[in-house]
Specification:
The protein has one domain (about 55-220): Hypothetical Protein Ychn, Chain: A, CATH 3.40.1260. The protein is of the alpha/beta class and about 220 residues long. The longest helix has 17 residues, at about 65-85. It has 9 helices and 7 strands; from the N terminus they run H-H-E-H-E-H-H-E-E-H-E-H-H-E-H-E. It has helices at about 10-20, 40-50, 65-85, 105-115, 115-120, 150-155, 165-175, 180-190, 200-210; strands at about 55-60, 90-95, 120-125, 130, 160, 195-200, 215-220. The model is unreliable at about 1-10 and about 20-35 (pLDDT under 50). It is globular.
């Protein structure tokens, strides 16, 4: 199995324990009650920002040709037609997790950590392992320019990135380059694009979005 994959259930459980222990940024705080009756947190406040009456969460754990972007755009384009409402009534959540986590990171991280090689992602303009993010300003090889990640964010798509995946894969990169895991994780967190929120896990993001009325769509 490739070293970029979660190699065992034990690896994942160890990762979850380590990552959640360091998630002070998501600790409960005093405030309005969340939907489940608990205290408000950074996570529940993020869920509160999901717009619209008609909502979809796109779960994107594997690249699948960039279809997480494509499915998000498809709902933005066709929801207003199908439901007879303005786009402001269409809420879209995109969850970047597992093997798509580099899509949340800027070009400097792609070049420094050779993320195209690490995740087996080819730049469609060069047909070589990507040394820049091919999905931010352009939608990879998808024939829909409006599916570029930046354009989706600009149209109000709520994008969440999985902290567990950042923790695990930055650790893989640290081992490859002989660096400290905590230093590489800090580097990756600083490389997350504006408009993308790092959440405790992608699984939690999907769960929370569904609890807020989002239909679940699996993108890869």
């Amino acid at each position: 199995m490739e070293d970029t994959k979660l190699s065992s259930r034990r690896d994942f459980l160890a990762l979850a324990a380590t990552a959640t222990a360091g998630l002070g940024m998501m600790a409960p705080v005093a405030g309005a009650a969340a939907a489940a009756g608990g205290p408000a947190t950074d996570f529940t406040r993020w869920l509160d920002t999901i717009p619209g009456k008609h909502r979809q969460v796109t779960d994107w754990p594997d690249l699948n040709g960039g279809m997480g972007l494509g499915y998000s755009l498809a709902f933005l384009m066709t929801g207003p037609v199908g439901y007879g409402v303005p786009e402001s009534e269409i809420g879209v959540v995109l969850v970047i997790r597992h093997n798509t986590i580099p899509i949340a990171l800027n070009d400097s991280a792609w070049a420094k950590y050779k993320l195209g090689e690490m995740f087996n992602i080819t730049d469609p303009d060069t047909n070589a392992p990507a040394v820049r993010n091919p999905f931010y300003l352009k939608p990879g090889s998808l024939p829909f320019p409006d599916a570029a990640l930046q354009k989706l964010i600009d149209r109000g798509v709520r994008v969440g990135a999985c902290n567990l995946a950042i923790t695990f894969f930055s650790g893989v990169a640290a081992a490859k380059f002989g660096l400290k895991p905590e230093d590489v994780k800090k580097d990756w967190l600083e490389a997350v694009y504006p408009g993308i929120t790092v959440l405790p896990s992608g699984i939690l993001a999907c769960n929370g979005a569904v609890s807020r009325g989002c239909a679940y769509v699996f993108a890869g």
